Amino acid sequence: MSDASPTLEALDAFIRSRQRGLPFPPWLEERFESDTRRRRSQRLRAAMVPNAIVYNVFLIPDWFLVRDRFWLAVLLHATVVTPWILAVAWLAGERSSRLVRELSTASMPIVIVLQIICTFLLTTSRDAGHYQYFVLLVVLFTNTIQRLPYRFAVVASIIIVCLQTIAIKVSGHMSGAAATVAIMTLAVAAYLTLVSNYYLERDFRRNYLHALRGRLRHVEIDRAARYDALTDLANRRFLNKRLDELWARGDDAASPVAAIMLDIDHFKAFNDRYGHVAGDACLKRVATCITAELRGGDGLAVRYGGEELMALLPKMTWLGRFKSRNGSAVLSRLSAFHTMTTTLMTPSLQVSAWRRGRCRQCPRRRSSRLPTPGSMQRNAADAIVYGRLYCGETTGKSPVP
Predict the structure, then answer these.
(1) Measured CA distances, 396 to 34, 42, 381 (Å)
(2) Global pTM?
C-alpha cells in the first residue's frame, strides 16, 4: 500500500460525510484507479473484437438502405473504423493511464458516428432517413453497454448529438417535422442513458467503498491477531506460523535458521519501582532498535513474553550484522533509563542456530523439523552451559556490559 493509500479512519470519515457527486478525493481516487484498472482494461479489451464483429454485421442494413454508397461504407468499415476499434483495444491496456484509456474508448463511438454521417450525407437513397437511426444505437451502446465514466460519457454524447443534428439539417433527406422528431429522439435517448450511466457508476463506486472498508478492517484485525499492541512486534502466534512456513518449503531455502533471545536484565525491579509507564517505554525503545536492525531483511522481530524478545533470522543472512551492532544499539536505547535506577540495566543476548541436514557432531542423524519457539528458548539457554545444540549450532551468549 502506497503512502497515498487511504486509512480506515479516513475512509470511514469520507463515507459518513455522504459527499455528493461521483469523484473521490485525490487520495482515494488514486487507490480506486489502482484497484479497478486491471479489471476495466480486461473488460474493454475483451469486448473490442465482438464490438468490431457486430459493427461490421451492420453492413447488411447498409446494403438495403444506402445501396448507392454501400462500397463507400465497406471502405470506411475496413480501412478506418475497424482498425481504430482494434487500436483502442491496444490503447486500453493496463499500462495506459486512465485518461488515455478512457479518451481512446470514448473516441470509438464518435468515429463510428462519423462513418454513419459520412454515408448519410453522400447517399441519394430515398431510405436515407431511416439510416440515421443507427446513431441512436451507438448512443445506447456507449452509455449503457460500454459504460464510459460519466464525465466522458457526457462529452461523447454531446458531440454525437451535435454532429447528428448538423448532419440532419445539412443533408435535406428529412422534412422539418421529421428532422425535429429525429433530433429530439436522439437527445432524449442520450439523456436517459446518461442518467442510467450516472447511477451505474455511483452504485459501482459505493460498492467499491464498502468493499475497500471491509478489506481494510480485515487487515487491521489480521494485524491485531499477529502483532503485539505495545511494541508492534510479532507475537508468538505469528512466530509459530512463520516457523511452519519456513519448514513447509521443503528445501534448504530456510536453512540455517538463527534465533536471538533478548532478555532485559533487572526489568522487573525497574518496572516495579518506576511504574508500568516507564517499563512500557523501555520495551518500546528496545523493540524499535531490533526492528531497525532487521529492516530490509527476512528477519522477524517477536515479543516472546514480558521483557523477552526474539529475532528470527532465516538463512542467518543478518546474524553477523545483528551481533556486531545490536548490542551497543540496544544498550544506547536503555541508557536513558540508567539515571533512574542504581542497578545498571543490560540486555542479554542468547544466540542459537539450526541447520537443516546432517549435524556436524552426529553426521548420521538428520534434523526432522525446525524447533518450536519454546525449544528455541530452552536451547539458547542450554547453549550457555553446553556450548552446542543437539543437531544444531550456537554462537553462545552475548551479554552486553
Answers:
(1) 49, 57, 9
(2) 0.69
